[in-house]
Structure formats: structure tokens, C-alpha cells
Amino acid sequence: MLDDFLVRAGLAGIGTALTAAPLGCFVVWRRMAYFGDATAHAALLGVAMSLALQGPIMLGVLCAALLMALMVQTLSGRGLAEDTLLGVAAHSALAVGLVAVSFLSGVRVDLMAYLFGDILAVSKTDLAVIWGGAAVVIGLMLWRWHRLLTATLNPDLAQASGISFRTEQLVITIALAITVAVAIKAVGALLIGALLVIPPAAARPLARTPEVMALLTALIGSVAAIAGLGAAFQFDTPTGPTIVCVAAGIFTITTLVGRFGRQTG
Length: 265
What we know:
There is one protein chain. By secondary structure, this protein is mainly alpha-helical. It has helices spanning about 5-30, 35-55, 55-75, 80-100, 110-115, 125-155, 155-160, 165-185, 190-205, 210-235, 240-265. The chain has one domain (about 5-190): ABC transporter involved in vitamin B12 uptake, BtuC.
């Protein structure tokens, strides 16, 4: 019989994978990997704000991630290259968050837990938050799926159909902020970006349609979460990084399979 904390950790890992799956596909399609990193790094600043104001951690992280994403979206294309702006935003947010935490006197903060996650310490309340966030993000993606897909894959058709690129970008921004807020407990700020990019990148060589890619991404993310949790428990390694290592291994395998299939096809 599995221990309760392992069951909770497994459910948290699957919930995080399902939250990141549909959003991660759009992150890959739109080449927004650094955008996801910048939003995730802002989470630490949200943690500092929450502790300073004695408010809920998740609310602070959600606000900080959303503000960062909106700021980057607003400033992009106004004199700075987008990758330069994202680089400045990502590293600045992380640095400011770390400095802000150091000023919190009388508050004991486990920075490693917020940077790399502590999935084994997930409580039933955390589980409810993670799965609630998954339901919101998946519902949002399903509601806007066709519009998001059209705006992403065929901007000209989207414009002709009256679909606003900026509106759909805002939907992705909100979903990304929610994902960061619910996932920080499980995998931490530094590893959220990896879960947004690696599973969809691993699914891409095997998928022929966007819908199949989204489903495969959810499956790969869930398998990586469970296998990584099992490996971390077996070999006594950090759980969050181990999950990402398993996902990276799956990516390597699917990439090789995809190239072999193209060569023999």
C-alpha cells in the first residue's frame, strides 16, 4: 500500500502535467519558451510580496506572474527585441525576488522549495488548488481552442475572420499565470518553464494534428511525473529535477524515433 504522501505527490504531478499540457503546446507553437520562464521567475517576487503582506502565497504568485506577463506583452516591440526584453525581465524578476525575500526579517523562507518545488510536501488543500487550476486552464483552452489555434497557425486567416491576436495572447497570458501559481508548490519557479516546453516538444514528432499533440503532451507529462516521482523515491534524488530529467529522456527518445521514421518513410 502506497504511503499517503506519495499518492498526494503523484496526483499533484499529474494535475500539474494536465495544467501545463494544452498551454505548453501554444508556448512551443508560438516560440514563447522564454516568455514562460519570465512569468515563472516572477513567482518568487510574488512569494516575497505575500509573505511581507501576510497574504496567501498563491494569490501573490498569481498577481506577480500576471503583472510580469502583461508588462512583457505591453512593452514588446517598443524599441527592444522581444528576446532581449524577456531576458531582462526573467533575470531581473528572479533577482529582485531573491533580494526581497532576504529583507523579510523574522520570516523563515525555504527558498529551495519555491525554486525547485517540494512535491512530497503537498497537502490535500494544495491538491485541491492544483486540480482546480487544472480545471480552469483546461476549460479556458477548450473554450478558446479554435480561435487560439487559428491565431497561432494562420494569423492572416485569423485577421480575416475577425479574431484578435492580442485578445488570444491575453488568454494565454492569464492561463500561464494560473499555471505558474498552481505549479510552484509542486515543481518550483525554475522548473515550471521546463514542464511547459519539454512534454510538448517530446509529443511534437509523434503527432499529426494539434489535438493529438495536446493529448500526447498530457500523457507524456503525466508519465514523467509518476516515473520521476518513483525514481526520486528509489534513488533519493530531488523530486522536481528528477521529473524534468525523465521528461528530457522521453524527449530524446521521441526525437530519435521521429527522425528515424522520417528517414525510413
